Amino acid sequence: MNKNFIFIFLFMGLTQTVLADRWDFLPAEPLFNPLIGDLREPQYTIIAPLNKAAYDGDIGQTFDFIQWQSDESTKWAWGINGASFLELGSKGNAEFPLLVSDWYLGTYFSEKSGNLSNRLEFEHVSSHLGDFYFNSSVERIIYSRESLRIISSYDFSQNFRVYGGPCYWTHLSPDSGDPRLFFQAGAELYSGYYNFFLGLHLRGYATYNIEVLGEAGGVVNQTIEAGLQWRWKKDSHQSLRTAALYYTGNNLYGQFYQNPDSYFGLGIFFDP
């Protein structure tokens, strides 16, 4: 009996050691680096377009529930993300009525092997007009989307990254019979780090993101962003960014997805 007890104790200890080496529950940062140049990637954002009296905000988070290492060079993860994208008007006297809100919720599997990483994501989005349009002539639509997205990312170095992949709408409402397959691609470019005041690490960055969609008769959405990124730790995903950006394409809010939109803006971004 004593020998059996000792064997079980040693076996459980060894199993826990192996699991600890290969499994990480609720890790501090996601395995797949967020696409910071995508304005619909969950993050914390305030953007002030320069050509209209409105402000865009994003409250969102991406986190892995679990990460596991299948071999010496490959890791996998499963997690969820969600975000609320809000557009607020400006009427003066500190009044900022809600114009429109989009809600995103998704789950994903990601994989990383060396400089190559991949993310397979299922995402739901719905869009709703705000109280500002309650008594207006603007037509409310029931806007709902579900999509499957496969994005592959490759880091040529610590300072240059490219990504892209196909996406497919599994559900469309309204559905006008437009093609459901669409594509996303982009790039991120960074300068070297500079030591800043109080131990902050500062570097410049620029991003480009493009989506080619069949909806609304066919549209190409493009975003160019350039600015500064502050980090307490160089190897952490968490950062504060200030940037100027230019967007052109169709309106990103679902209630107005058929309307052309373009603007220059200034933004503050926090990458959690």
Name some characteristics of this structure.
272 residues, 8% helix, Porin, mainly beta, 60% strand, globular, twelve-stranded antiparallel beta barrel, 14 strands, single chain
How are the secondary structure elements laid out?
Elements: H1 2-22, E1 23-25, E2 44-49, E3 54-69, E4 74-89, E5 98-113, E6 116-129, E7 143-157, E8 160-173, E9 181-190, E10 194-195, E11 201-213, E12 219-231, E13 239-250, E14 260-271
Antiparallel strand pairs: 1-3, 2-3, 2-14, 3-4, 4-5, 5-6, 6-7, 7-8, 8-9, 9-11, 10-11, 11-12, 12-13, 13-14
Question: Could you characterize the architecture of this molecule?
Answer:
The chain is mainly beta and 272 residues long. It has one domain (25-271): Beta Barrel (Porin). Helix content is 8%, strand content 60%. The protein has 1 helix and 14 strands, in the order H-E-E-E-E-E-E-E-E-E-E-E-E-E-E. Strands 2-3-4-5-6-7-8-9-11-12-13-14 form a 12-stranded antiparallel barrel. The longest helix is centred in the first third of the chain and has 21 residues, at 2-22. The chain is globular, with a radius of gyration of 22 Å. Mean pLDDT is 90; it is low at 10-19.
- Are there runs of 5+ residues with pLDDT below 50, and where? 10-19
Total strand count, please? 14
Shape: globular
CATH class: Mainly Beta
The SSE order reads: HEEEEEEEEEEEEEE
> pLDDT average, as an integer?
90
Strands side by side in the biggest sheet: 2-3-4-5-6-7-8-9-11-12-13-14
In short:
The chain is mainly β and 272 residues long. The chain has one helix at 2-22, and strands spanning 23-25, 44-49, 54-69, 74-89, 98-113, 116-129, 143-157, 160-173, 181-190, 194-195, 201-213, 219-231, 239-250, 260-271.
